[in-house]
Structures are given as C-alpha cells and as structure tokens.
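U., I forgot to send this yesterday:
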Amino acid sequence: MPNTPPLKSKLDIAKNWLPRYTGMPIDDFGDYVLLTNFSNYVTEFADRFNCDIRGIGRPMQAATNNDGLTIVNFGIGSPNAATIMDLLSARNPDGVLFLGKCGGLKDSTEIGHFVLPTAAIRGEGTSDDYFPPEVPALPSFKLHKFVSDKIVEKHMEYRTGVVYTTNRRVWEHDKKFRGKLKRMTALAIDMETATVFIVGHHNQIARGALLLVSDVPTTPDGVKTEASDRTVTENYAKMHLQIGIEAMTQIGTRGEPIKHFTY
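Result:
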C-alpha cells in the first residue's frame, strides 16, 4: 500500500475526500458552486459550456465552466447534503446555491413556482450533529437577495417562507405526519435545505437555496409520479438552472460583498 500520511484533521479528510467523491481536483473547483440532486442539471450545464463532467461512476458528479462556476450532483437526502457541504470546506468557496425540488404545502405554492426559503425547519436530524436544536437553519441573506433580483429580472413567480426539511421520503400516505406539517405552517417540504444551511453555517460557507415546486403532496392526486416529475423537468428545469447560473456567475462582480463572522 502507498505510504499515505494519516488524515488527522477535518480539513485533511475533506481535501482527500472531495476529489475522491467527485473525481475533480480541488484546484478545479470554482469560487462559486451550484449544488443539485439531478444528473440532468449537470449534463445540461456541461453541454451549455462545453466542459467535462467529472466523477462518472463515483458518488458525485461535477463540472466547472470557464467562468469559474462549478456544479455538483451530490445525490438525494440530508446526509449527502451534509457530506458535500463538509467536503467543500476543502475549497472554501465564496458561495454555494442549492438547486433542488420541493413539495408545495400551501394553496399559494403551485407547481412551477420557485421558493426562496427564508429559513428551514430542522426535521431531518442530521443537522443536530452540528448545532443545538435552538440554532435556526438560515441562508446567507446577501446571497438570497441577489438570487431574488435575478428571478425578478426574469418576471418569474416565486415565494418566500419557511421550508420543512425531513429525512423521511415516503410519508404522503401518513395522515399523522401530514397533520404535523399543517401545524408547522411551512410553505414547502424537502430533504436537504436545512442541512445545507446548517452545515454551511458550521463551515462558514455562504449558502442559499432556490427550490422548484415539483408537486403538491398534501392534495388529492398531488403526489409526485415519474410522469408528473418528467413534465416539471421539461417545463421548468432549464429556467431553474439558468437562474442559478446567472446568479452565481454575476454575484462576485455585481452582488453585495458577503462577510463571514466567527462565533
């Protein structure tokens, strides 16, 4: 076996594991990063900018364009969200934006709307390993402010509010859980946002999330299916990705500077 120095610190581990998970050397990661759950977002990104997709056959796939913007498909779920936000500490990017899908929980949140969360309820459990339950899961305001400006420029519908993040996937049949969601008064539900926010806070990485409403799971016939998800992807995914690309490409030169504070 090669004589590899022991990985003693978190930074040592992150520097070793980020290329191992993504197939991309740390120096090839850009200053700004888009995160997603969807391989087609990475493919669309790579086709648009004629850049290579790294990490085929590895847990995560990534690509970086000539503008220094990287996109990573980290998979699905809270633990994977924590993993990529920890591993990105090896690169310490200036900003990270999660492009995910969510289920709408309000009458005002329709399929195809964008959600820019003001906060996320930590129902997923993973974030408890980073901060006590009293610590709210929040985005970086200045990053979200710039993303909001980009959405408005395109005259697109979007909502702001609190998202409930859960580690549970098949819950739509559970009346008790649905009742809990109603009492929470959350705008939408997903599986990653709170974790991205909390682990980003822990690692002092500016972070945000732009979610696309892909289903309305608490309504009759509103549970996502393969066919319905395909329709959402065909109609809205390109705009979702486009807003993310424009926001994270331009924020470095046009956005308000983001400062990090250590507590």
